[in-house]
Give the backbone structure.
Amino acid sequence: MVDPASHRQGDADATAIPARMRSDINRIALPVLLTAACCALVAYFRIVAQTSIVSTHFAYVPIVLAGMWWGCKSVLVALFLGFFILGLNALVGVEEPLSADAARIFCFFVVALCVGCVTERARAAQALESRSRRQLDEVQRRLAASERLASVGQLAAGVAHEINNPLGTVLMYSHMLLRDLPDPDPRREDIEMIVHESTRCRDIVRGLLEFARQSRVNKEAVDPVALIDDALTIMRPKALRKGVALQRCIEGKLRMVSLDAAQIKQLLVNLIDNGIDACRDGGEVIVKARRAEDGRCLKVEVADNGHGIPEGYIPKLFTPFFTTKPPGEGTGLGLAIAYGVVKMHSGDISVQSAPGKGSTFSISLPIDDAVEAESGSA
């Protein structure tokens, strides 16, 4: 079956290309037509009216307009018009000093270059303003998300502490009842359901407590490769049960970095766990780590070849309690905790995904030069 969304995307791409072609043709055609019209007027005044001064002034119209459309490339139009007038003088028999011809061409060239430079600088300023506006919108979006996470964290701390104690009591007495009931007792299934659901509530409360504790970061010099290996070791039994291969790829030599080892390990475990859940039997989850090209950040990627994430879900992924898993299989706190951990480390996290093509979570963590220098000397 053909996906209708792909049809719509293909139609949009097919209509976008002719639109760009029409825009490019218009940018080329209008200065060319104006130049041709100006050449006709110049030829008329030179040949028929025998007026050279007026005809020269007509040449500045296409030169200025070409500079506004083409930028510095308008010097080609200026040179063409200058040599065109020079050729007309030779054809009509107008004898002008060589210095006058050279001065005319020089004036055309300077006008075209000035207008073109001003146009290109204006376009560069407009592009910079547009880029700055997009960056500002992104910063505002992230700030709003951080404020929401902070408020949810405060709420989570209070709710988790209030629920944790009675929930522990329910679990304790449920286990006691389950232990005392004989196997054929029909009530045993009901008690097991109570234990299962209470355990699920305990996991949610634990996630809330972890989410609320994100404001405390205890950094120390740690080996990022060892952290990745520990996270893979923790998740390997689940990966074996689901038939998913776990791989790691370390590019270059990674030195010690200043991180909260427990939080970063939990972050990696959450991302690897999501990758395993997204893969079918025979899938693969790869954890990659490298140093950024500028040397200031540690780049970590957790990629899977699972079912992927729909585009409409991606902006909501790091929102607390949002999950794409079936009911009862996820709390929706894993990625929210991961987001908070990365932000408290002054880093950044992003995701690239498409349905049927897997997902890649990219994490960027700043490197402390002092810690790296100590590890290098050691």
